[in-house]
Design goal:
Layout: H1 3-7, H2 19-32, H3 36-47, H4 52-60, H5 68-103, H6 121-135, E1 139-140, E2 146-147, H7 149-152, E3 178-179, H8 185-193, E4 198-207, E5 219-229, H9 234-249, E6 254-262, E7 265-274, E8 285-293, H10 295-305, E9 316-323, H11 324-332, H12 345-348
Parallel strand pairs: 1-4
Antiparallel strand pairs: 2-3, 4-5, 5-9, 6-7, 7-8, 8-9
Helix pairs in contact: 2-3, 2-5, 3-5, 4-5, 6-11, 8-10
The structure holds 3,4-dihydroxyphenylalanine (DAH).
Length: 352
């Protein structure tokens, strides 16, 4: 028995072509298929449940026993050849599709530009200010925006009837806490948690119940400073803040200390700056409140610490508070505070 015999085996006459012819037909149709859909039709025609190859499988059952293995082997070969040809042709279609898709891309076109973001002007000036203080050895401290009335006022020697405590000026929460009206609260938080010496700055937000206009906002930003050590004097306060302001506004700027009143410092000052560099021109601009820490503040801290760590006979210190939004306005010549929070890219891009 040889292969020719088996391939021409035809039990039922015309309907089922011999296996060799079947393979030839299938391969020719696979090569001739124009697309994946045509190819699928070919697959169904030959390998589908009632396809020619499957019919041969049925037919096998009625073959004489001796012929079964020979025909079976050939049938497997034919099935494998058709399957492989189908796979190869499918792959060919896919590759062609991909390269057609790639051809439609013009790689010489310029790419989509990605715009670079910039730091917000307030962040820029905050970073500069923090950098100057850090060079003088100040560490960063922080405290919560939502504060107790005690941290915001009592501990800072502010009388119960002080106008700042008025509900017209301060945001009170239903539970009696407040949105801190200044960052001076961080002075208290720092001294509560650590004994002297202290040298910290605390940048952060503060809130007041102001009517919003070109120079007032309900939320603004301050940098608080606190320096406590043995023998700290007004000379240290002046030297530190003059150096800071000259670094920020230029070496030729003039700095002036005016006597003022704050409950938590004695003596207290306001600082004005005049500089050619400033867009405000040749006039004095108020930039900072400061003073020597009031002994009553130290005593109040000692009370909650339950010790005498801040003995006013031994330790002295200075404190200051800088309004950053105001500084940014005069440094950059911004006429309206509301621009800082307006999220207008035309404005923000000018500080790139
Ligand atoms: N807390 C004051 C304010 O918001 C600013 C200030 C003044 C802070 C004097 C200080 C200081 O630390 O010593 O107006």
């Amino acid at each position: 028995m040889n292969r020719d015999v088996s391939t021409s085996l035809d039990m039922t006459g015309e309907e089922t072509p011999p296996l060799e012819k079947l393979r030839g037909d299938a391969l020719a149709q696979i090569t001739g298929a124009a697309d994946e859909r045509a190819l699928e039709e070919v697959r169904v025609r030959f390998l589908g449940r009632s396809g020619s190859v499957s019919e041969w499988g049925e037919k096998m059952k009625s073959l004489p026993k001796a012929e079964k293995p020979i025909v079976g082997k050939l049938l497997n070969e034919v099935r494998r050849a058709i399957t492989e040809a189908l796979d190869a042709r499918t792959q060919e279609f896919r590759t062609n599709q991909e390269s057609a898709a790639l051809e439609s891309i013009d790689i010489s076109l310029p790419g989509t530009p990605h715009e670079r973001g910039t730091l917000h002007p307030l962040t820029q000036i905050l970073d500069r200010a923090i950098g100057i203080f850090r060079r003088m050895g100040f560490a960063l401290a922080e405290g919560p925006d939502v504060e107790t009335e005690w941290h915001c006022f009592d501990a800072l020697n502010t009388a119960p009837d002080h106008p700042a405590r008025n509900e017209q000026d301060t945001f009170f929460l239903p539970d009696g806490r407040v949105l801190r009206t200044h960052t001076s609260t961080v002075q208290i938080r720092t001294m509560e948690s650590a004994p002297p010496p202290i040298r910290v700055i605390a940048p952060g937000a503060a809130f007041r119940r102001d009517e919003v206009d070109a120079t007032h906002s309900a939320q603004f930003h301050q940098i608080e400073g606190l320096y406590v050590d043995e023998g700290v004097s007004v000379a240290d306060l002046k030297g530190t803040l003059e150096f800071f302001l000259r670094e920020l506004f230029g070496a030729d700027s003039q700095v002036r200390f005016r006597p003022h009143y704050f409950p938590f410092t004695e003596p207290s000052f306001e600082i004005d700056v005049k500089s050619k560099a400033l867009k405000g021109g040749e006039k004095w601009l108020e930039v900072c409140g400061c003073g020597m820490v009031h002994p009553a503040v130290f005593e109040e801290v000692n009370k909650v610490r339950k010790d005498q760590a801040y003995d006013p006979e031994k330790w002295s210190g200075f404190a200051f508070g800088l309004g950053m939004d105001r500084l940014a306005m005069i440094l950059f010549g911004v006429p309206d505070l509301r621009l800082f929070a307006g999220n207008d890219l035309r404005f923000l891009k000018q500080f790139a």
